[in-house]
Structures are given as structure tokens and as C-alpha cells.
Write a structure and sequence with these properties.
There is one protein chain. By secondary structure, this protein is an alpha/beta fold. Helices cover about 30% and strands about 30% of the residues. The protein folds into two domains: about 5-145, Rossmann fold; about 150-285, Rossmann fold (3-Layer(aba) Sandwich), CATH 3.40.50.2020. Strand 4 (about 55), helix 2 and strand 5 (about 85-90) form a beta-alpha-beta unit.
Length: about 300
């Protein structure tokens, strides 16, 4: 007998949660969320969750700490009402960029946050395009990391066919070390495409500088792939670097649209992202990850 389930949306992904509910035929539960004047949070479960499998849909994007605490408090509420299993569906994993000690005295906050979720009572995690694979090792509970490579490949294969762009004239570009495997996997879906690598360094948080470009981009159509666009510095620097080296056109795709700044290089032909972070984005193509997450829930 299949276990009865409910999906709950907190504050970050209400539309996405509804889309997942429609695709899985799992009903949405009722939740009441209050943010008090002193900064405290109350999250109250209004549905019967006893002996049920519960899916919490919540990205921990800005305000990240607030949304993390919504999850922790709601998990406690679910445990108090005898939920049988709690699955955290986290399309975007906040604090994922703090996954190592880069300078003496720094914390590994991605690991700390993973410990908090498990201590609160999360049984399983479903997420998309973790910043680094090593984050999976921070969890002792099962974690499923879904890749969006196929989603972007389908979009750009159709687009490039419409524009009559030969894949042999296409270069998939990684804007830093962290996206090298992502670029390789995406590049493998375009027969004949080549790869290029932008080497960068970070002199300070939210700042990056290009030191070199490895690969031939002259007179090529370039597709930059990354997991996160935040301030846009990494993307803008990469765009400038490959145009300086003779690129013909530049396209960009990135899974998580943090977009602390929307000042992206106007020479970019098309920018494609997903709805892991829900916000209004003008002039940017947004692909839905609802089916990817629904399929993972239905497995």
C-alpha cells in the first residue's frame, strides 16, 4: 500500500510547489507562517500529517537564514504531529558556496546547515545542481542531487537548430573551476561542440577576476554554463574575456537565479535559467524544474 503523502510550500517556492502537486497528484497541505516584529518565526501545520510522508518545498535563497529557520521550525511542528517521513525538496541549497575553508578561520557553513536539517528531523533531501558534489558527503541521510543539464540541452538544441548554428561552431564555456564538469556534460550533448575554460580568481567575496581563457573561441558561438548567477560578476567577466578573444555570439545558462544584481552584459544573446528561485525576471528565459522534481518524488 502506497503511503499517503502531502506537499507543503513555505515562503520561497509557492508556485513551484503547486506545479509539483499538480504533476504528482499529491495534495498541498495547509501551513500558517508568521514573522514577528522582533524577528522570530512561527510555522504552524494546519493539516493532518500523522503517519504520512511529507514533502517540504523550500529553496533557501534570500533571505537565506529566515528560510532555513522556517524549515527547521516546521519540521519540529511536523514531528510533534507524528509525521512518518519528512522529505526536504530544496531546489536551491543556500550557503552551498561556503563548502570549504578557503582562508584560515573560515567556517564550512554548507556542512553546518546540513547538520541542522538532520538534527531537526529531515529524513531525505532532494535538490538540484549542488554547487559542488562534496556537499552530498555532508549528509548522513539520503540525498538526491538532480542535474538540469538535459533541460538546458533541449532548450539550446532547439534554439540553435532554429538559428541554423552548426554544433561544430559551438563552444561550451565554463566560467570557473567549479563548473568544469557541468560544461563537459552539457557539451557532450552537442555533437561536434568543443570546450573552453575561463580561469578566474576571487580577490574578495562577490568579486572575481579573469586570469586566462583556455580554448579557441575565435569566430565561435559560445554557451557559458554555470550553476548560480548572483551579482553577475563571474558571467560578465567571462563574457568580456571571450569577446576579447574573438567570440561571435554568447549565450548563458545557469540553474539558480539569485540575481542580487541584474546588470548583465547586454551583448549576451540569450540568458536561460530555472525557477528554483522564484522572482520576477524580465528578458530572461525561465525553464520549470517542476517535472524533474515530480519525477524524483514519484520514483
Amino acid at each position: 500500500m502506497k503511503k499517503e503523502s502531502l506537499i507543503f510550500a513555505l515562503t520561497a517556492n509557492k508556485k513551484l510547489a503547486k506545479d509539483i502537486s499538480d504533476l504528482t497528484n499529491i495534495p498541498l497541505g495547509e501551513v500558517e507562517i508568521d514573522h514577528f516584529a522582533d524577528g522570530e518565526i512561527l510555522v504552524r501545520c494546519l493539516s493532518d500529517v500523522a503517519h504520512k510522508r511529507i514533502y517540504i518545498v523550500q529553496s533557501t535563497s534570500k533571505p537565506a537564514t529566515q528560510r532555513i529557520f522556517e524549515i527547521l521550525i516546521f519540521v519540529d511542528a511536523l514531528r510533534n504531529k507524528d509525521a512518518d517521513e519528512i522529505v526536504l525538496v530544496m531546489p536551491y541549497y543556500g550557503y552551498s558556496r561556503q563548502d570549504r575553508v578557503a582562508r584560515e578561520g573560515e567556517p564550512i557553513t554548507a556542512k553546518l546547515v546540513a547538520s541542522l536539517y538532520q538534527t531537526a528531523g529531515i529524513d531525505r533531501v532532494i535538490t538540484l545542481d549542488l554547487h559542488t558534489y562534496q556537499i552530498q558527503g555532508f549528509f548522513s541521510c539520503p540525498l538526491q542531487n538532480i542535474e538540469t543539464t538535459g533541460l538546458f540541452a533541449d532548450y539550446f538544441i532547439n534554439l540553435f537548430h532554429e538559428k541554423h548554428i552548426d554544433f561544430k561552431d559551438l563552444v561550451v564555456v565554463t566560467p570557473d573551476h567549479g563548473s568544469a564538469l557541468r560544461a563537459r556534460d552539457l557539451g557532450s550533448m552537442f555533437d561536434g561542440a568543443s570546450l573552453a575554460f575561463v580561469d578566474k580568481r576571487r580577490p574578495a567575496p562577490n568579486k572575481s577576476e579573469v586570469t586566462s581563457v583556455v580554448g579557441d573561441v575565435k569566430d565561435k558561438y559560445c554557451l557559458i554554463v554555470d550553476d548560480i548567477i548572483d551579482t553577475g560578476g563571474t558571467i560578465n567577466n567571462a563574457v568580456a574575456a571571450i569577446f576579447d578573444r574573438g567570440a561571435k555570439e554568447v549565450y548563458v545558462c545557469a540553474t539558480h537565479a539569485i540575481f542580487s544584481s541584474l546588470e548583465l552584459d547586454p551583448r549576451i544573446k540569450v540568458i536561460v535559467t530555472t525557477d528554483t528561485v522564484e522572482k520576477e525576471l524580465n528578458g530572461i528565459e525561465v525553464l520549470s524544474v517542476a517535472k524533474l522534481l515530480a519525477d524524483a518524488i514519484n520514483e
